[in-house]
Design brief:
CATH class of the largest domain: Alpha Beta
Helix content: 10-25%
Radius of gyration: 25 Å
Largest sheet: 6 strands, mixed
CATH topology of the largest domain: C8orf32 fold
Distance between the termini: 47 Å
């Protein structure tokens, strides 16, 4: 058991270091012209596998452009057959059958992709193995001999590369509906990243210098494409399951322009309450989680760029087993958007519920803030600035407690944190 644990730790340290800079020689190439050509394939090009391959690769000047045209056409035009997947009646999954029907499960996607690549004179193989895709739950055991997915490997300029046309086409929602959304990430994905959600039956197709075992793969932290796209790194808790006595602190490395959020889920339901708390510590984030009771929880972490007005995207997930017996902390303060956007750091108090009649020490780092104040039922307590920290002793006399900051003289106050007086 000890040797297996050390193998997992050594492997994850090496691969997580590599994933930050791992890229293919084609990752910066502009494929917009070949993509547009593929997406505008006329009806008469679909007469056969060969006619379609000829059309798609006609303007290509290199093997990777041929491969890209095929990948882009397949991901844009073939729909995931959710009805077939759930019923077990997949229909004709041959390349010709999928071309005709326009729908398939992974076997059909990878088969059509290989058929078109063969017709274009490219070297492509179909790979089968175990994926952490639809139906996977973090911490699940994987049964050897029961592979559940198929993808492809392609040889370009004498080197092998990995890609998944099924996952490149989109995803299946929890309600069983296919959503077409092109996933660039699954085109020529570096093997050091691909291994986190794809494990081939034949270890050759890991394309790693030091292949891992199925049990190693099973224990890896559950990372999603957004994790790599946003250049995150796991610094603590490198396995997907955490044993906790009631309080967890996870450290995730992140660039300065990346924001994180987190949530707890139990029995497929999002917990209502402030059971997670995130704040930046230099070049990384500290993610805290506490739990309302003993049991198993999923801790989900989301990410986005600070300049992105859209929502956070799922980046990674842990399974936490807790007895919740050694902490009195049940909820953290509510943190508002400005808290993370302005890189505010809270020293104290870290618990949301503050006893009425008590005096609490508020200690907050708010870079570039002009003023910071605690407001309790319309009573204002201005914190004093000492050595770049806003500090003050505040008597808890009411129920609604909010910390505000002003970033310019004459500007409006902005809410940072919310507490509750008990």
């Amino acid at each position: 058991m000890k040797s297996i644990f050390l193998t997992i730790i050594i492997f994850t340290i090496l691969t997580l270091f590599l994933t930050i800079n791992a890229a293919t020689e084609f990752s910066e190439k502009d494929y917009s012209a070949i993509d547009a050509h593929a997406l505008n394939a006329p009806e008469n090009a679909l007469r056969s596998i060969q006619t379609l391959a000829d059309y798609l690769t006609a303007p290509a000047s290199s093997e990777d452009e041929k491969l890209r045209a095929i990948f882009r056409w397949v991901t844009h035009n073939i729909s995931y057959d959710t009805e077939g997947y759930f019923s077990g009646r997949y229909g004709d999954l041959s390349a010709d059958g999928v071309l005709k029907s326009g729908k398939a499960v992974c076997e059909g996607y990878s088969g059509l992709f290989k058929g078109l690549a063969d017709a274009a004179g490219l070297t492509v193989v179909k790979v089968t193995g175990y994926s952490k895709g639809y139906g996977y739950s973090v911490g699940n055991r994987i049964r050897p001999g029961q592979s559940n997915h198929a993808w492809n490997a392609a040889r370009l300029n004498g080197k092998w590369y990995l890609l998944d046309p099924t996952w490149g086409a989109g995803y299946v929602t929890g309600g069983g509906e296919f959503v077409r959304r092109f996933q660039e990430y699954y085109y020529l994905t570096p093997p050091e990243k691909f291994i986190y959600d794809h494990f081939p039956e034949n270890p050759r197709w890991q394309l790693l210098s030091n292949p891992i075992t199925l049990r190693d793969y099973e224990a890896l932290v559950y990372l999603r494409p957004t994790f790599f796209i946003n250049n995150l790194s796991v610094i603590s808790h490198r396995q997907n399951t955490i044993q906790s006595d009631g309080l967890v602190k996870i450290i995730i490395g992140a660039p300065d322009d990346v924001l994180l959020s987190a949530a707890l889920e139990q029995n497929r339901r999002r917990l209502q309450g402030d059971y997670t708390f995130i704040q930046r510590e230099g070049d990384h984030y500290a993610i805290f989680a506490t739990f309302p009771a003993a049991g198993d929880y999923k801790l989900q972490i989301f990410s986005k760029h600070s300049s992105d007005p859209g929502s956070y995207a799922w980046a990674l997930e842990y399974l936490v087993n807790t007895n919740a017996s050694q902490t009195n902390l049940r909820e953290f303060p509510t943190s508002y958007g400005v808290f993370s956007e302005k890189n505010v750091y809270l020293h104290s108090p870290l618990q949301k519920n503050l006893p009425r009649g008590s005096t609490q020490t508020f200690k907050i780092e708010a870079p570039k803030a002009f003023e910071v104040a605690v407001v309790i039922d319309e009573q204002w307590y201005e914190l004093m600035l000492e050595d770049n920290i806003f500090l003050g002793e505040v008597p808890i006399s009411g129920r609604e407690i909010t910390v505000f900051a002003k970033y310019k003289p004459g500007s409006n106050y902005q809410a940072l944190l919310g507490y509750r007086g008990n």
